[in-house]
Amino acid sequence: MATRQTQSLARLMRAPAIILLLVWMVVPLAMTLYYSFLNYNLLNPASTSWAGWFNYQYFYTDPAFMDAIWNTLVLVLGVLCITVIGGILIALLIDKPIFGQGIVRILVISPFFVMPPVAALIWKNMIMHPSYGVLADIAKFFGLQPVDWFAQFPLFSIILIVAWQWLPFATLILLTSLQSLDGEQMQAAEMDGASALNRFFYLTLPHMARAITVVVLIQTIFLLGIYAEILVTTNGGPGNASTNLTYLIYRAARLNFDIGGAAAGGIIAVVLANFVAIFLMRAVGKNLD
User: Fold this and answer.
1) Do residues 259 and 265 lie in contact, with contact meaning Cβ atoms separated by under 8 Å?
2) Which terms are listed as keywords in the entry (predicted)?
3) CA separation for the pair 171, 108 (Å, rounded)
4) How far does the chain reach from its first CA to its final CA, in angstroms?
5) N or C: which end of the chain has fewer CB within 10 A?
């Protein structure tokens, strides 16, 4: 049993890490909160003044704000659907012993190591380009008109790119869960006459529930901050068709040089992200108990 002296020593040794973590988190948030109440434009930094709640009102009433919220929801849900369903299917596939299984698994997870701007450039110039992309060549081969993906389906195109990046992560987590499934249960169910679908829905899927929850929680946190793929491919357009909340904040700060408005948008994004986190923990977090 730890004595009072050892407990005090443990608290003392933990204190520097806790203080550093608090400074790491609190200082940027406090500075963002401070700038959100200022009229601070990088083109004229000398005329900084107190703005009160104006930046929040300006950001909230921006016509692009509701479009950005909607696009953010569609982007997150679209990527989650593709990665969770696709991850389950691929995990089931590569869990079976096949020739070259190790190489196949490496190839499956390799897109996760490609940086987002590089992945966006690959898809933009080599796969989805309407003149010389792979999809355009396939369309021409079948006598069809090539699709200008980023002009006609900008948000869907970005969902595909992001899902391609995150599918290996979901596959890896789900494959790990699948490999811990008790084989004797599956054999017993098979001997009792359970079909493959019944074994999947009543044994495999419930066993993977915790892993699916982890995938949803972790991916949602990162997907709320997606912006590099949008910047490289569509710049948020056409119009606001592919502008999400993160890109809207970037546009206010780096294109309009409005630091006060961008800081207000950042605070709004933090509040909304916390609402999403609370909702997710209540909706799916019970699987982690």
Assistant:
1) no
2) Cell membrane, Membrane, Transmembrane, Transmembrane helix, Transport
3) 8
4) 28
5) N
